[in-house]
Amino acid sequence: MATFAVDCPGCGTTKEHMTTTASQIGVHCSCGVTFTVDIDEQTVDDWWERES
Ligand SMILES: [Zn+2]
């Protein structure tokens, strides 16, 4: 299965093993940022800080 990596827009941590099976995926980073990834572009689509 093809995978790719993107960097968290909040802390820069590389998130690996993104799969290309969905049209969009959501990632919850430990730094408190949630972001969505555009599969076609393999880039961060939108992101926001989680309410705590
Ligand atoms: Zn982060």
Q: Tell me roughly what share of residues is in helical segments.
A: under 10%
Poorly predicted tracts of residues = none
Tell me the series of helices and strands, N- to C-terminal: EEEEE
Question: How are strands sequenced across the largest beta sheet?
Answer: 3-4-5
Summarize the biggest pleated sheet: 3 strands, antiparallel
Shape, principal axes of CA atoms:
globular
**How would you state the average pLDDT, rounded?**
91
Bound molecules: zinc ion
Distance between the termini: 35 Å
Explain what the structure shows.
This protein has 52 residues and is mainly beta. It has one domain (3-49). It is built from no helices and five strands. The protein has strands spanning 3-7, 14-19, 24-28, 33-38, 43-49. The strands form two sheets. A three-stranded antiparallel sheet has the order 3-4-5, with no helix packed on it. Strands 1-2 form a two-stranded antiparallel sheet. The model has no long low-confidence stretch (mean pLDDT 91). Zinc ion (ZN) is lined by residues 8, 10-11, 13, 29, 31, 33.
